Amino acid sequence: MQSRYFDVYEGWQKDPEGFWRSASAAIDWFKEPEKIFDGDQGVYGRWFTGGETNTCHNCLDRHVAAGRGGQRAFIHDSAMTGRQKSFTYAEVLEEVKAIAAVMRDLGIEKGDRVVIYMPMVPEAIFSMLACARLGAVHSVVFGGFAAQELAARLNDSEAKLVIGASCGLEPGRTVAYKPLLDQAIELARVKPEHCLILQREQLQAELRPERGELDFSEVVEKARGRDVPCVPVKATDPLYILYTSGTTGQPKGVVRDNGGHMVALHWSMENIFGVKPGEVFWTASDIGWVVGHSYIVYGPLLAGNTSVIFEGKPVGTPDAGTFWRVVSDHDVKVLFTAPTAFRAIRRDDPEGELVEKYDLTGMRALFLAGERADSETLKWAEQKLKVPVIDHWWQTETGWPVAANTVGLGLMPVKHGSPTRPMPGYSLDVLDDAGHPVPRGTLGNIVIKLPLPPGCLVSFWNADQRFREACLDEFPGYYKTADAGVMDEDGYIFVMARTDDIINCAGHRLSTGAMEEVCAKHPDVAECAVIGVHDATKGQIPCGFMVLKNHVSREITDIAREVAELVRNEIGPVAAFKTVMVVHKLPKTRSGKILRGTMQKIADDMPWKMPATIEDAAVLDEITAILKANGYAREGSGLKQSA
Ligand code: COA
Ligand code: AMP
């Protein structure tokens, strides 16, 4: 039977407002929207204007009121501590009210910003929901980022409050978060008035009450039982800011609204992911990323699912069977993770022997996103799990899938390498650099016709102009995804590569430009280039090339180590910046542009062309030689030059 997708997509095309009006009926509104879409508001228009609602109400209160209070909202499963704990919707509501009461006592009001810097503990999610309850705007910062990155987010968001934890747990080490937070506040121009710190038993932090630092559990305990009603917010008010890598070191604050976000996520849960209220949905990611925001927290709660909060890794905690243990322990119906997690599992358990050990019969589908899913990984997952494996494509900016195969509406035929077709709300084109549509099957810039659907970013925080310049100006009438790809004859999209400096390392989005800015701070570095090179597990890893200043006579290995440490300390361990090569010159065009693309192709053994405008072709010989010495360019890409 043909998937219902085609009818639904066509229905949206014929009447976009009617489509979203009917989807919005699934949400409780304190005041119904006056318009479904208002093209005169915002940068490219706004959704559900005039409407009033509250995201926390829709995630919690209304389920409790409807009699679902006893159903589990979350299962926290920590492979790091070996503990599991469930929370019903009613229990989460009580916790959230208590946190909201504390925040209100600290002066947090609608519109105030709150930074959350925590590991994968339930309190992090309860804090997000408490912000939503008060109409405060949360900004979650991933724990693997360093103090400098946290400071940049404190400054840009002008947060009044930080909710943090004493530590995170990584395999083999306890990461002290509090010293990183202290350092970030020291560096930040805008200091928060208070910090609420969750003390974890693995490592306690020293709290300084004179600096507004409070023990999270202590104050929340005292606030238990207090009733804090949901503050009505406009559909167009911001729910959160999520900073993501842009083309410079300055992260972009993606702003998500309340109304459109709820409508889109709710629609996606049943129609794309195919889960019903009461079923267990597990997104193995981190709340520091958009995937965690949308599909650990808001999507599953809006749809009345039970969401798994997992603290651990796909391998090594304790082994490559952890995911299957979690699926079978909690009867997970749908699992969502990044392809890199599967590559790591397959590397450690190539025959899938650990898969066999667990009962996975309840699982209906696996969703993969965050980076390109290679067909070997897809095939392995299909064979071992015996469920549909769905590659779907989206970004921090869009907040929910741009292209997917729809489990809920019925599956379309799978083409490996393609996240299938655009979802309702998204009209995709592929354009050449001059903005002309390219023929089907030809590589070009993937763009989304404006307006973006509900749930997508409305702008960058306090930076409408930057949003226009980065995303809207280059292709008038379109949002530029900064992904290059192909649409085939059947309308399937193939996402091939980024058109900017972003790399995807272990499913984490990183800017090589930001890394270059840090490398350039080393006193011995004259200039540098950072590129993403292929890695069998992580997809891509950064690789830095440094040209040293004249007369530097120190040991090269010392300088390389220091540069790597600098990036680890300023961006964070998550950058996985470990490969540093010192060269005499960087390959450039005659106009001085560094030929990063050519370097990457050489490193990855891909065919490349000698750029006609190269300043000094011999420089590429040194690059090739040093790459080979470091285990790249193994097949001698110099021999593979394309005509
Ligand atoms: N707090 C502090 N440090 C963190 C951290 C956190 N929350 N998350 C990661 N780090 C550190 C790690 O400890 C590691 O440090 P190290 O250099 O000292 O070893 C570094 O950052 C890189 O971590 P990671 O990218 O997780 O690599 P890994 O080698 O530890 O694990 C994978 C590799 C593939 C198993 C892991 O990256 C993974 O599970 N990826 C899935 C990604 C994902 O869910 N992405 C979200 C989009 S869907
Ligand atoms: P992030 O904002 O961290 O979610 O990263 C978004 C980027 O990851 C996209 O712009 C793509 O480059 C890449 N990406 C995400 N999902 C996919 C996918 N299914 N296939 C190919 N690339 C993807």
Automatic annotation (TrEMBL):
Pfam families: ACAS_N (PF16177), AMP-binding (PF00501), AMP-binding_C (PF13193)
Residue ranges of domain Acetyl-coenzyme A synthetase N-terminal in the record: 5-59
Single GO cellular component term: intracellular organelle lumen
GO MF term (any one): propionate-CoA ligase activity
AMP-binding enzyme C-terminal domain boundaries: 515-593
InterPro entries: ACAS_N, AMP-bd_C, AMP-bd_C_sf, AMP-binding_CS, AMP-dep_synth/lig_dom, ANL_N_sf
Membrane spanning residue stretches: none
Alphabetized PROSITE patterns for the sequence: AMP_BINDING
Cross-referenced CDD domains: PrpE (cd05967)
Keywords: Ligase, Metal-binding
Domain AMP-dependent synthetase/ligase per the UniProt entry, residue ranges: 65-449
Source species, domain of life: Bacteria
Similarity comment text for this entry: Belongs to the ATP-dependent AMP-binding enzyme family.
Protein name, entry field: Putative Propionate--CoA ligase (Propionyl-CoA synthetase)
Annotated source species: Neorhizobium galegae bv. orientalis str. HAMBI 540
